[in-house]
Amino acid sequence: MKLFKxxxxxxxxxxxxxCAQNASHKLISPLPSGIDTGxxxxxxxxxxxxxxxxxxxxGNLHMTVFSKELYDIVDIHQMQVGDTLxxxxxxxxxxxxxxxxxxxxxxxxxxxxxxxxxxxxxxxxIARNWDDYPTYSQLGQSEVxxxxxxxxxxxxxxxxxxxxxxxxxxxxxxESLEDSRREFNQLNTTVTIxxxxxxxxxRHWIP
Length: 207
What we know:
By secondary structure, the chain is of the alpha+beta class. It has helices spanning 2-23, 73-77, 170-175, and strands spanning 27-28, 43-50, 54-55, 60-68, 70-72, 84-87, 90-93, 97-100, 103-106, 115-119, 124-127, 136-154, 164-166, 183-184, 189-194, 197-203.
């Protein structure tokens, strides 16, 4: 009986200790974007849409709005094994950490199916995927009016192709795009909004 009580006491201590340790683990989330998708007035946002999302009769564009995931430098420097990192909208439990010349590899880094963070501007860290693409959080859907004089700045198929700047006949330009060019996504597209109206759509070249 004494042995049973001693064993039970050890188990209880282990459970309490484990709970205390788990309670110390943190959830590290990206910094708030500060963007209200229901009321965007003066901002430049990352967005995804396709050619069919332009509503020319009403002069609107329906788009999905994203935010580049930035992490506070203090949170990242205090990060430890056992914490959870919110990465591309998904929780990732940190099993290993390795720092090398400002790069932080999580769970073995990209080469081993893990994750990578690098220093960014303004006291932040940013996640990096292959081809140095950052990660984005989806903020929501939004339908925004097109300004009468909105401009489309569009890259070519190759990195050295000339950039097209479309200041008139935007409808004809969008509708004439080949199928492979009708998709605009968060990796290559930003939308500038002024006074609640879209004034510029900019698609840059990516690998």
